[in-house]
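Anyone able to model this chain together with phosphoenolpyruvate?
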Amino acid sequence: MNKALRKAVIAGNWKMNKTRPEAKALVEELKPLVKDAGCDVVVCVPFTNLETVLDAAKGSNIKVGAQNCHFEKSGAFTGEISADMLTEMGVEYVVIGHSERRQYFGETDATVNKRTKAALAAGLTVILCVGEMLEDREAGITDELVALQTKVALKDVTKEQLAKVIIAYEPVWAIGTGKTATAQQANEVCAVIRATIEKVYDKAAADAMTIQYGGSMNAGNAAELLAQPDVDGGLIGGASLKAPDFSVIVDAASK
Ligand code: PEP
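re: yes, here you go
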């Protein structure tokens, strides 16, 4: 399948940034800049900003996501947010398995799988993050590791549900470090992920899968990364906090 037939998705991951007034201002600035985007535009914002950003984005082409959700529907899980709580608000996307959650909050492939299934059951589109640490790359195990992360995260996810999954390949050594994977490195691993989807599901599922690259993507390097045949979009951290920079990346994905 031709890459051009897949849906390109540029998603901002605001991480733990922006108060509500700042969030509103950023979306207001972004709206006119991305209104003619030829790709899907998503902003994944802190829980406290969801209502403000949903309101600010109403009537625009900007879609709204959260950065995590719990795998249970409700109950004694202090500090957690369920997938149903997100959909009830009108949230459409959720980032699952971001490397910062894996590194700092004990997220494992098994919990990523549980969260992914819960989010899909609630009707959310999942941006599922996978990626190797620097020592994995240096040990030459990137492909096996990322393939395994992908397989475990998608265990018991049906082919029908897969239509609501986007995979973000995010080498951990490139996140927030200013060190971007080369376009070739990014494309190679995105291709490994696509081959894994073909093995587990089938060629049609692999051809249709949107696979993003994430890791210090910015206004200067986005065009080259997004031109790669297996890179269908980007998950953007730092550069998503500035509307002009984010909109340059959206433009690069729209070509
Ligand atoms: C991210 O948070 O997913 C990310 C890729 O961050 P940055 O673009 O800042 O490296």
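The CA atoms of residues 1 and 245 lie 30 Å apart.
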